Each structure stands twice: as C-alpha cells, then as structure tokens.
Amino acid sequence: MPSGKRTRGSDAAEARKALLVLSDLPAGWTVSPSPNGGGSSFTGAPGLASCIGVPAQIVGALPPEINSGQMSDKSGTVQVQQSISIFPSARFAPSPKGTTALDVDTALTDEGASVPSREELVFFVRGQFGDSLELMSTGSSATPSSLVRHLISVAQSRL
C-alpha cells in the first residue's frame, strides 16, 4: 500500500482475498514478490482520462492498492500480476463501461537486440474496488487466450 494512504483493514483484507494465487494458474508456474511499489504520481492522467471518457481526478488518484505476487510460466516469458485499488467510495471508482481492456504491443531491448513484447491490461470495478489484471508476454510466446479468459473470470468472481 502506498505510504500516506489509509484504508480500513476490512477493505484491505477483502482485496487480499480477491487476488489471484499460484493455484489459479497452470502447473509449473512460479511466483515472486510484486515489483510494484505504488505511490508515484501519474502525469498522463488528463490525456488518458480524456481518451477513456472519465474525469482526470479518477485516473490521477492514487488509492491504496493490494498487489499479487508476479507469477511466471516455466520459461519466464509469460507473466501475470494483479493489483486491486481501494477507492474511498463506489462513486469515486467508475470505469467507462464496467470493464476496460487494453492491448499494447511493444519491443524491449535486451543486450542491444529488440525483443517483441505484448501487454494485456484488463481493468474492472466492483463497488469501491478497482481490479487491474496485467498479462505480459515477451519473445515469441503469447499469453494463451484460454488462460486470459480463465483469469479474468476468476478475478471477476472474487470481488
């Protein structure tokens, strides 16, 4: 949880229970601590808010969040992480249409070589909780669509 942000313990406990766990993934996956520290400001809030049709203060808000560990497949080329933000109220946590999904194709540089990368981000809101599910693949590996559907279904059923 970012420093300076307080939330009720029951809200944080509910968010923790809703996180994906290693047993939600296929056999052979591993988990490591979350690399997300939270607490930094987002300077692109006005542009993103305009693009998705919500007020800028919603995108720019830094509510407390609970993060899952970073889960990786056997090869380490497909990774999954979930963050649940705890907004002050349901009114403060709207999504334009309930669920928003973004798909970004990029290239990473590894020792001077360009490596294709794909990130899928699914965000949905339940009450005062904003659930962000991030799936990232590098190289020629792709996150199987059946796994994406399964994880979205599990995440949505827990909040």
Q: What do these coordinates show?
A:
With 159 residues, the protein is α+β, with helices and mostly antiparallel strands. The chain is 23% helix and 34% strand. It has 4 helices and 7 strands, in the order αβααββββββα. Strands 1, 2, 3, 4, 5, 6 and 7 form a 7-stranded antiparallel sheet that branches. The N terminus is likely disordered.
Tell me roughly what share of residues is in helical segments.
Answer: 10-25%
Cα-to-Cα separation, first versus last residue: 18 Å
Helix-strand category: alpha+beta
> How many individual domains?
1
> What is the β-strand count?
7
Specify Rg, calculated over alpha carbons.
16 Å
The shape is globular
Biggest sheet details: 7 strands, antiparallel
| SSE ordering | HEHHEEEEEEH
CATH top level label: Alpha Beta
The overall average pLDDT, rounded, is 80
As a percent range, the share of strand residues is 25-35%
State the low-pLDDT regions, or none: 1-6
Tally of alpha and pi helices: 4
Second CATH tier, the architecture: 3-Layer(aba) Sandwich
Question: Which properties best describe this structure?
Answer:
single chain, 159 residues, alpha+beta, Protein Transport Mog1p, Chain A, 23% helix, disordered N terminus
